[in-house]
Design goal:
By secondary structure, this protein is an alpha/beta fold. The protein is about 40% helix and about 20% strand. It contains eight helices and seven strands. It has helices spanning about 10-20, 25-35, 45-60, 75-80, 95-110, 120-125, 145-155, 185-195; strands at about 65-70, 90-95, 115-120, 135-140, 160-165, 200-205, 210-215. Strands 3-2-1-4-5-7-6 form a seven-stranded mixed β-sheet, with helices on both faces. Helix 3 (about 45-60) runs parallel beside helix 4 (about 75-80). It is globular and about 45 Å long. The termini are far apart.
């Protein structure tokens, strides 16, 4: 399993995962299949984040969700499990190769019928959706330089009171390191400042994995 929260020791993190609905056999299978990709496997969300997303979807009564950046499908599996049987999850990704890894596990989990996978640039996929604010929840985990553009597009699709989750907003802790002027840090800082001051949202950044920002669209 991938531990991404830098402030926790391995022992504490393992305890946290074990006492917060740990991954089941299907999820572990997907984690193991993703690990075979080598260094790219680090793009998979952490198990505690997946558990949080499942619980959050259930807490807000989400029926329709959108995901930007599916990778091998662990986050999609977790979100889809939080939706009702007639729920729908639109997944946007540019890689058929990576998403193909996760599809058998979606089938095993019985959630494949909820997932509408769209391969291509996410902004194009979002633009093709009807301009109806019927989605309850969105998750962004793609090219970080487009985070603000993704949020803007999603505000036209998410209902008032719906939530947008944005991953990797701590950027490995670089956001708080004044000596770090890397592109990664600068992009994350600019985005974080933008959404924190955007009056359309209630905003909270959670220290889950590499930082998970939750934006609630005000009515």
């Amino acid at each position: 399993m991938t531990r991404k929260t830098p402030t926790l020791s391995d022992d504490v993190y393992d305890y946290l995962v074990a006492h917060g609905t740990p991954p089941d056999d299907i999820q572990r299978g997907l984690i193991e299949a993703t690990a075979k990709l080598g260094d790219d496997a680090q793009m998979q969300i952490a198990p505690d984040q997946g558990a949080f997303m499942t619980v959050l979807a259930r807490l807000i009564g989400a029926r329709k969700a959108i995901e930007i950046g599916t990778f091998t499908g662990y986050s999609a599996l977790c979100t889809a499990r939080g939706l009702p049987d007639d729920g729908r999850l639109v997944c946007c990704d540019v890689s058929d190769e990576w998403t193909r890894v996760g599809r058998p596990f979606w089938e095993q989990a019985g959630v494949a019928g909820k997932i509408d996978l769209k391969i291509g640039p996410a902004l194009d996929s979002l633009a093709a959706l009807p301009r109806e604010r019927v989605f309850d929840m969105a998750f962004i985990d793609a090219d970080k330089e487009n985070n603000a553009n993704y949020v803007e597009a999603l505000t036209k699709l998410i209902r008032p009171g719906g939530v947008i989750l944005v991953d990797n907003t701590l950027a490995g802790g670089s956001v708080a390191d004044e000596s770090d002027d890397s592109e990664r840090a600068q992009i994350a800082r600019a985005f974080n400042a933008k959404v924190a001051s955007d009056e359309r949202f209630d905003c909270v950044m959670l220290p889950i994995a590499d930082g998970l920002t939750v934006l609630r669209l005000r009515g």
